[in-house]
Design brief:
Cofactor: Mg(2+)
Bound molecules: adenosine-5'-triphosphate, magnesium ion
Structural class: alpha+beta
CATH superfamily of the domain at 1-147: Beta Polymerase, domain 2
CATH architecture of the domain at 1-147: 2-Layer Sandwich
CATH class of the domain at 1-147: Alpha Beta
Strand content: 5-15%
Organism: Metarhizobium album
Radius of gyration: 28 Å
Keywords: Magnesium, Metal-binding, Nucleotide-binding, Nucleotidyltransferase, RNA-binding, Transferase, tRNA processing
Domain tRNA nucleotidyltransferase/poly(A) polymerase RNA and SrmB- binding: 188-238
Family: Belongs to the tRNA nucleotidyltransferase/poly(A) polymerase family.
Length: 419
């Protein structure tokens, strides 16, 4: 029997307290899902979900008696969040599906562990750990963890028809934890049901896609999704562009210590077309910040790798660094693979792009020392002339690489005002 009692996350006194509270007087509570899976895979455990035979009201009552904070975060679907020493634990009553329509499930509370396991999506996500640390495996999840096989519980096409988001979850978990090829039955059922992805809410799709794109290496998952026609279904922008840039990007991230940024990975597989990207952002309901990232990228000017430092500073000043950094990162990644294939020129080009990127990373926009008030004080009447004069002086200041000080600019302004 596999036992996780010795694992640090399991020995956390806050968890011990929650499990003690749920495991008395005939009731049972067990850790389930991602925490068990990650622990068995040797990956750090972050949030801990718990399944229990107790009804949500009973969980609330027990928490009140024990002096544990309980928040009714989702009473209707059976979830109470218990908070101990600042750590939240989502405690959910065992459930079985009564009705599903591909997007929502109607559930009934139960005390049947087998039914609770079987309504989950993948075998590796349906493992429990009881209060003694023993792993309870009701669906063959342990063997699949060992072989890193991402597999649906039961019949893949039936499970997908219950909730089409599971197509994306299948590839997300494959991207993170799978090895070799995706499970054949899951792949086939996903491909067959792909046209149903458009019935899902944009928020759920983007949230899954983002998690998939955050995997250490999403390359293989994307390749299979593309071959199965699934990527085009959720991301038609990627159809002509392709996903060939992903391996170079992932390799560069590793070599240069960049964070795995799902936005940058997405930028690598869609064209830098402002209009299409705005439509993509609206369709997938990207946050304002995420949408801003893509529009900054698409509207950023192309940067020649041999650009002079002063010209580059002016570019950063005019366009902001954000979009230029995205362009440089993608260009650098592709120059680095070409350099690996032996091109001395590409190696030099990669070196120059890397220097430009470092400068862009350190860039702080200088503040133009004059304002409209200065122009008015110099005697120019309020009106379009004010803005014109300011922008003329700003250009002179830029052309001298930001080195003209305020006093000189004021004198120059006076000259202009005096005609
Ligand atoms: P992580 O939080 O690391 O992304 P997780 O496995 O905890 O992974 P969650 O999305 O938090 O994933 O879901 C918790 C558990 O609920 C899953 O492990 C799975 O058992 C079940 N689950 C979640 N979404 C679905 C779904 N769409 N269909 C079936 N079961 C699901
Ligand atoms: Mg989770």
């Amino acid at each position: 029997m596999t036992n996780l009692a010795g694992e640090d996350w399991f020995r956390n006194p806050a968890l011990t307290r929650v499990l003690a509270l749920l495991n008395s007087d005939g009731a049972v509570g067990r850790v389930v899902g991602g925490a068990v899976r990650n622990s068995l895979l040797g990956i750090p455990v972050s949030d801990i979900d718990i399944a229990t035979t107790l009804r949500p009201e009973a969980v609330m009552e027990r928490a009140a008696v024990a002096g544990v904070k309980a928040v009714p975060t989702g009473l209707a679907h059976g979830t109470v969040t218990l908070v101990v020493d600042g750590t939240p634990f989502e405690v959910t009553t065992l459930r079985r599906d009564v009705e599903t329509d591909g997007r929502h499930a109607q559930v009934a509370f139960s005390t049947d562990w087998q039914a609770d396991a079987e309504r989950r999506d993948l075998t590796m996500n349906a493992l429990y750990v009881d209060a003694n640390g023993d792993v309870v495996d009701l669906v063959g999840g342990l063997a699949d963890i060992d072989s890193r096989t991402v597999r649906f519980i039961g019949d893949a096409s039936m499970r997908i028809a219950e909730d089409y988001l599971r197509i994306l979850r299948f590839f997300r978990f494959f991207a993170h934890y799978g090895s070799g090829r995706p499970d054949a039955a899951g792949l086939k059922a996903s491909a067959a049901a792909r046209s149903k992805l458009k019935t899902l809410s944009a928020e759920r799709v983007w949230s899954e896609l983002k998690k998939l794109l955050s995997a250490a290496d999403p390359g293989r998952a994307l390749l299979w999704m593309r071959q199965a026609g699934i990527l085009t279904e959720i991301l038609p922008e990627s159809e002509k562009w392709g996903i060939d840039a992903i391996p170079a990007l992932v390799g560069t991230e590793k070599a240069l210590g960049w964070d795995a940024d799902p936005r940058l990975r997405l930028a690598a597989i869609v064209p830098p077309d402002a209009e299409r990207l705005a439509a993509m952002a609206a369709r997938l309901r990207l946050s304002r910040e995420e949408a801003g990232y893509f529009s900054a990228w698409a509207t950023a000017p192309a940067v020649a790798d041999d650009m002079a430092g002063t010209a580059f500073s002016r570019l950063l000043y005019r366009h902001g660094a954000e979009g230029i950094k995205v362009r440089l990162k993608l260009a650098l990644a592709s120059a680095r693979v070409r350099a690996e294939n032996g091109g001395v020129e590409d190696m030099q080009r990669a070196g120059r792009l890397s220097d430009l990127l470092n400068r862009a990373e350190r860039w702080q926009k200088p503040v133009f020392p004059l304002s409209g008030a200065d122009v008015l004080a110099a005697g120019i009447a309020a009106g379009p002339k004010v803005g014109e004069t300011l922008s003329r002086l700003e250009t002179e200041w830029l052309d001298r690489n930001f080195s003209v000080d305020r006093a000189t600019l004021v004198a120059r302004l006076q000259e202009i005002a005096n005609g």
